[in-house]
Fold this protein.
Amino acid sequence: MNIVKQRRISSDINKALCEIINEESHDDLLKSITITGCEVTNDLSFCRVYFTSLNDTNKKELLKELNDNTASYLRGRLADKIDIRHTPKLLFKYDESIEYGNNIENIIKEIHKKD
């Protein structure tokens, strides 16, 4: 598949999911997450959805809840929002990059304090 088309579809899915979560969902779990990115596979059968959460809940419990119960609801709503022949199955992954960046920033601050 053309990489440009794949990225466009990923971007469309990201935008549509953000709209669904912000405007249509009434679930507190969905309201607490922020979508940070989406990656669609070459055959458009799966879409990895990267997210962060404002809640201090356990990451494993949050992933289980999103992948087991919420993914099918979001996939159905996504099918109504985007114009694509086959809506990919959503797989939620916790985005560790923000925590990693904060950790690096704290280490740099500690080094500057020692000097």
